[in-house]
């Protein structure tokens, strides 16, 4: 039953996000535009980070960060987002009334988003490779995929706990809506943590689940 349910949830997610062929083309356009921003930012600021990038350009650094962290960051946010989507649609109230474990349904719904996130990551890598000549060694690619797979269960659990805390205390929704982006920034997604003051470096490594 769980397999059929998650297949249906995945199908629904793809249907909702890619209603027409041009919607996927627009997704590719957004990826290319984002990469273009990274590319020209790298041209302007690689020298400023030269001592921290260990032989990489800033473009290579931030693309590797995006490839590594996109799926874990989205997994961390997924339970919270799906809960409030389903509450607004009335779906979660129905599930709560008919299922003994509505939290299992919520977790499956969050897992059903992962194929689309991996598709985005694959498209991001292909665009970076074909348009901007980005290269990644097979060993690095394997390590990246392994890191994502190993981190997802823990991050889904953290997302479930954070959502449950918000429901219990009826506050913190605004914080949770932006917390995934804040934690990604302090995981070093956009710049090396070594450029931060020492106290912020320590706080970033201690407080972000992505480091």
How many strand segments?
A: 0
Q: What fraction strand? A: under 5%
Output the number of helix runs. 9
Derived structural class:
mainly alpha
Order of helices and strands: HHHHHHHHH
Radius of gyration: 19 Å
Helicity range:
over 70%
The poorly predicted ranges are none
Q: What characterizes the major β-sheet?
A: none
- The CA-CA distance between the termini, in Å, is 36 Å
Principal-axis shape? globular
Return the average pLDDT rounded to an integer.
77
Structural features, described:
The chain contains nine helices and no strands. The chain has helices at 2-17, 21-45, 58-89, 91-98, 102-111, 114-132, 138-169, 173-185, 198-207. Helix 2 crosses helix 6 (114-132) and helix 3 runs antiparallel to helix 8. It is globular, with a radius of gyration of 19 Å. It starts with a helix and ends with a helix. The mean pLDDT is 77.
Write the layout of secondary structure elements.
Elements: H1 2-17, H2 21-45, H3 58-89, H4 91-98, H5 102-111, H6 114-132, H7 138-169, H8 173-185, H9 198-207
């Amino acid at each position: 039953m769980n397999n059929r349910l998650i297949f249906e949830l995945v199908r629904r997610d793809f249907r909702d996000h890619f209603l027409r062929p041009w919607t996927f083309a627009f997704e590719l356009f957004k990826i290319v535009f984002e990469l273009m921003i990274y590319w020209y930012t790298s041209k302007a600021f690689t020298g400023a980070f030269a001592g921290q990038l260990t032989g990489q350009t800033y473009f290579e650094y931030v693309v590797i960060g995006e490839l590594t962290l996109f799926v874990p960051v989205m997994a961390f946010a997924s339970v919270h987002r799906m809960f409030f989507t389903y509450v607004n649609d009335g779906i979660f109230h129905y599930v709560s009334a008919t299922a003994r474990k509505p939290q299992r349904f919520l977790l499956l719904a969050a897992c059903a988003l992962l194929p689309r996130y991996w598709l985005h990551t694959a498209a991001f890598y292909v665009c970076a490779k074909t348009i901007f000549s980005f290269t990644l060694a097979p060993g690095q690619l394997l390590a990246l995929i392994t890191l994502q797979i190993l981190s997802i269960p823990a991050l889904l659990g953290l997302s479930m706990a954070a959502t449950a805390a918000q429901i219990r205390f009826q506050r913190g929704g605004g914080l949770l809506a932006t917390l995934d982006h804040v934690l990604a920034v302090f995981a070093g997604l956009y710049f090396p943590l070594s450029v931060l003051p020492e106290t912020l470096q320590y706080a970033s490594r201690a407080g972000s689940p992505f480091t």
